[in-house]
Give the backbone structure.
Amino acid sequence: MTDSYDASHITVLEGLTPVRERPAMYIGSTDTRGLHHLVYEVVDNSIDEALAGYCSRISVVINRDGSLMVEDNGRGIPVDRMEKNGKSALEVVLTVLHAGGKFDKESYQVSGGLHGVGVSVVNALSNWLSAHVYRDGNIYEMRFAQGKMTSSLSQREETLAELIARYKQWYGATAQFTPEDAPESAPAPGQTSLSSACVIDPGRSEQENRQAFLLQFGKKMSGTRIHFVPDATIFETTTFDYDILAHRLRELAFLNAGLTIIITDERTGDTATYCYAGGLTEFVKYLNDGAECLHPAPIDISKKDPENKLELEIALQYTTAYDEKIYSYVNSVNTREGGTHLEGFRSAITRTINTVAKRNGLIKENSTITLRGEDVREGLTSVVSVKMANPQFEGQTKMRLGNSSVKGIVDSLVYTCLSEYFDENPQVLKIIIEKALSAAKAREAARNARDLARRKSTLESSGLPGKLADCSERDPAKSEIYIVEGDSAGGSAKGGRDRKFQAILPLRGKILNVEKAGEHQILKNAEIQTLLTAIGTGVGEKFDAERARYHHIVIMTDADVDGAHIRTLLLTFFYRYMPKLIELGYVYIAQPPLFRVWKGKEEHYVYKEEEMQKVSAAMGEKGVSVQRYKGLGEMNAQQLWDTTMDPAHRIFRQVNIEDAYEANEIFKTLMGKDVEIRKNFIIRHAKEVTNLDI
């Protein structure tokens, strides 16, 4: 530390150094979420090629060595030299931030990657990266290590055999190019011979045949392949998760009708091919798989606004569920926090249904009933996708669309299309209105239940549940509440806590499964009423995150099957009725130890069986005692504090919503009504269970 401070202390980070110094600024985090974000950045470039009409196939391969490869059949990243710096465009794209074709309005009318940092950031955060570009029958290659070039641009001609092999890989192994491939028998009348694609003439030289092949198929043979290994010094984990990637790639295939996306995991042999000609309608059918739908086919809206260079695609379908599931995208980017396109859709659907319902006599003109947005969206599953030039995303993570003009455009287009649809399909409108009116009645019942609960609370001296052992701290940011199961665990937690900032709320048994109940039923449940009163935010339209009495809401359950079930029920409740608390990072899961291992005065608490075996072995094994905790009540107050509640030693897992529709799928599968879907999920993942307590 020096007292002087002058120009010599100012540091300018050159090239990709800023990315390595502050990776979270570019990819959000360096945990598993940030790791997979690298893949999305590369895939998004391929998706942009598909949006531009040049790419029909994307392949993602997780290799046995832990590396990952993304390959597409787009136009291929340009490799010619740039006049300004004399470097190849490929090198600039891979090594310079904010360099790319997305700023050139002629190259991409629509794109998700506007900032030009995607693939260069991947390069910076990779231990090594190689780029192959296929253009005009040539292969161009460059190699990098931690963002710095290790092998300059090389070029060679693809052989005829390589071209044929790649064509068969990209467009089908049945493609035929040689006389040996041709069928022996002549084609039936009116049929085209499979050998019509044959361009190989034994009488010509290989080079002549190669030129003939490129003349016929050259435009289909361009593409880009990015192959990289994430840098283990940057990331907490470098192991790619097949299921996480498969979810996102399937989503992209839904959003880009007709695009084929293939994922292969060479470590396990898992592979999947996604291609959906029906696009968003198939997406909604997938989301509603297992649900009871109120009308058989999703409503499809597809409209263009040439003046504003905007394309709108929406699919929506109503089910008997009580919640709404609306997912929004801009240029295939998941806008998890919504934005102006979602605002336009929501306002339009409320306005349309009220207007058309009154016009058709389903709601009388002089009726005092006006269906609110939450009424008309109850049971709605919808995907809203906008493709547009110049989207203004809020931040590099692109969570929310900010273009103010989009709200009015989407509102107008949706109102027009939905009005026409309902006029042509009055029976569907009638079903939706009946559902919305039922929701309005339930909303009133829920409001009355909340009012009753508030009136009841005011009659109590403290206004808080009697079973709550509150803390003395009044600053929510410094306060914690532990939700525990049963009086036994509650007793240990109350005895072991720090009363200044830790509150304890014991719940009796399992709360209601909110996946199968309406809001008015949920609010009558005694345990949920207790939970709501203790947290203080309210629920539904009365929810206010600023009224949260604690910024650490900790689910602390037993390490057995019942404990896992209670934890899942609580998470389902928070996800469905208080998702903002999860988004704000207020919800946590405590990690109590599974074993206590001791020998004499030496004592260790461990969380996995393998860890217990290692610790036991390290202590000599002979004379080592092991206690397995099946419940929190088996720990005394001091042990629970030392292992699970002491901020200096405890382990918490913060609950976050990685992706809305993935989370919805898990809750629907585990907690929904369809037993068959749940059974299939258990069968698929049974081998992944390492600690089963029966």
Remarks:
- The CA atoms of residues 20 and 448 lie 55 Å apart.
- The radius of gyration is 30 Å.
